[in-house]
């Protein structure tokens, strides 16, 4: 059996925790929902865990006092109600749960919290606004799927990602390939991820938005072509995420929390 990883809460024991000082807690936020025909319902859960593990391991190796919390497996699914077993938590419920967990961290002496979000339906920025000034914790939000800009993304992937497309399929192939369904010829058991266009130009262009009903938007819940995904692309993405997010955790761990945090202090002001 491998030794417990000291930066992963679900593996360490109280004897270790009570002797350890943590500065940063990372809470991955996932979901349980369909991902086209070929990916598991726990895709967002697996992604949050694998990315959390990769960045916390790298940060810990660089001296960060960081702890990775278990991934929350449920998220907001109100626009997937027509799909069976899309397990919904309303935003207000999700916010209440995260607020309680943040308070648990504060009571444990951890006041730097990173929400590592894996699910587009988890709109967490309103919670950050609501918590500001009401908690001793400094809460940061990372939607990891937004870390790559357009140029970075297309150096790895050919097709744009929305849900269960090339990027997500590549991530699951990298760490859980046995969970990806394939046809007898080896191709993914998935449709093309095509979506139905809107009637209105303003919606198509993004000038106006709605919450999209996914049973009308998609054929089998997938939005984005997955068929050129590879495990190698998934590993490339994980390495970029580690290179960009682990240093942030290291810096955050070492940072002094004062009245100007997290802004720089300008001498003479």
Structural class: alpha/beta
Low-confidence stretches: none
Strand content: 5-15%
* Mean of all residue-level pLDDT scores: 96
Number of strands: 4
Distance between the amino and carboxyl termini: 55 Å
Number of H/I helices: 9
Could you say which overall geometry the principal axes of the C-alpha atoms support?
A: globular
Strand arrangement within the widest β-sheet reads 2-1-3-4
Order of helices and strands: HEHEHEHEHHHHH
Oligomeric state of the chains in view: single chain
Largest sheet: 4 strands, parallel
Helix content: 25-40%
> Radius of gyration from the CA trace?
20 Å
Question: How would you describe the overall organization of this protein?
Answer:
By secondary structure, the protein is an alpha/beta fold. Helix content is 36%, strand content 8%. It is built from 9 helices and 4 strands. The chain has a 4-stranded parallel beta sheet with strand order 2-1-3-4, with helices on both faces. α2 crosses α9. The longest helix is centred in the C-terminal third of the chain and has 24 residues.
Summarize the structure.
This protein is 36% helix and 8% strand. It has 269 residues and is of the alpha/beta class. Strands 2-1-3-4 form a four-stranded parallel sheet, with helices on both faces.
